[in-house]
Amino acid sequence: MSDIRTCTEDGCQRSGSVRCHISWADEHVVCTAHARTRSTGGVVAEPLADAEWE
Ligand SMILES: [Zn+2]
Questions:
Q1: How many angstroms does the Cα of residue 2 sit away from the middle of ligand 1?
Q2: How far is the CA of 9 from the centre of ligand 1 (A)?
Q3: How many angstroms separate the alpha carbon of residue 36 from the centre of ligand 1?
Q4: What is the 3-state secondary structure (H, E, C) of the chain?
Q5: How far is the CA of 34 from the centre of ligand 1 (A)?
Q6: What pTM, to 2 d.p., does this model score?
Q7: List of long-range contacts for 5-11, beta carbons under 8 Å, 24+ apart
Q8: Domain extents for the chain?
Q9: In angstroms, what is the span from residue 22 Cα to ligand 1's centroid?
Q10: What is the CA(29)–ligand 1 centre distance, in A?
Q11: Which pLDDT band, with edges at 50, 70 and 90, does 1 fall under?
């Protein structure tokens, strides 16, 4: 349980602002940049309420 929204990608220090729902894995929060790279192939990216898209 964590309220800290930090991108879960290794080595990424950006704040997480998009929740990715992946059919074959647990959901996780990533930054907008990583959300773009992941929003293909069955991944549903759901921007959080306070997301700020660049
Ligand atoms: Zn990231």
A1: 17
A2: 5
A3: 10
A4: CCCCCECCCCCCCCECCEEEEECCCCCEEECHHHHHHHCCCCEEEEECCCCCCC
A5: 5
A6: 0.67
A7: 5/29, 5/48, 7/31, 7/34, 9/34
A8: 1-54
A9: 16
A10: 9
A11: very low
Mean pLDDT of the chain: 79
Ligand 1 centroid vs 38 CA: distance in angstroms?
10
Top pLDDT among 2 and 28 is at 28
* 32 closest CA partner among 50, 24, 41: 50
Q: Please determine, for residue 45, whether its predicted confidence score (pLDDT) is greater than 50.
A: yes
Task: For residues 32-48, give the mean pLDDT.
Answer: 79
Centre of ligand 1 to C-alpha 21, Å, is 15
